[in-house]
Design goal:
176 residues; alpha/beta; seven-stranded mixed β-sheet; 13 strands; elongated
Length: 176
């Protein structure tokens, strides 16, 4: 960001803060401090400087964007949806070597839809914090943990395991 642009925006915000304080007795610096603390928290959750690269989707991360994934995931794949919307199609995901195929989908301030097959063994574990996690059978949780498993999971270890924490967002699983 150019220094002139930074200082211009800062002076405009300072002027607006003074006007709001005089006219409406709004403590705008307190509000800015609270927003700054929220910004720091989000930056810690994201783990990198996402503010200067908005609308950029890299690899398995969806940040301020909308994306659909249809490729077959590998064991240990992790997906992140942060301030975005994403759809995952795991109907063709097949575990290999009689071991579970493990996938993790993190949803933070976003919306995620996961499509799974009715005919395949699937186990889901979701932890929600001020969010919504809806399982294929209609069960839902807003704060806490929820699980789901198809009947064919108990037969063997060859199943799809999805771990899906959701924080201030929505997560929905759809059987097709």
């Amino acid at each position: 960001m150019a220094p002139g642009l930074f200082w211009g925006i800062l002076l405009i915000l300072l002027g607006l803060a003074i006007i709001l304080r005089v006219l409406f007795d709004i403590h705008i610096f307190g509000v800015f401090f609270a927003l700054f603390i929220i910004f720091i928290g989000i930056s810690m959750l994201v783990g990198r400087n996402w503010m200067f690269r908005p609308h950029q989707t890299t690899g398995n991360d969806v940040i301020f964007d909308d994306r659909t994934f249809s490729e077959t995931p590998h064991d240990g794949t992790e997906y992140n949806v942060i301030f975005g919307k994403s759809t995952y199609d795991f109907r063709n995901a097949v575990p290999a070597n009689d071991n579970p195929l493990r996938i993790k989908i993190n949803t933070i301030f976003g919306s995620t839809t996961v499509r799974i097959s009715k005919d395949k063994a699937v186990r889901i574990k979701s932890d929600a914090v001020f969010g919504s996690s809806v399982m294929p059978d209609g069960n839902t949780v807003a704060f806490g943990s929820i699980g789901y498993a198809t009947d064919s999971v108990s037969v063997g270890n060859n199943y799809l395991f999805i771990e899906a924490p959701v924080i201030f967002g929505s997560l929905r699983f759809v059987e097709e």
